[in-house]
Amino acid sequence: MKKEDCFKAGFIMRPHGLKGEVTVSLDPDSPSDWETLKTVFIDQRNTLVPYFIEYASVKNDKAFVKFEDISTPEAAAGLKNLSIYLEKTSRPKLQAGDFYDDEIIGFKVEDEAEGLLGVVKDIERAGMNRFIILDYADKEVMIPAQQPLVKSVNRTKKVISVNLPVGFLDI
Question: Distance (Å, rounded) from C-alpha 104 to C-alpha 142?
Answer without folding.
Answer: 14
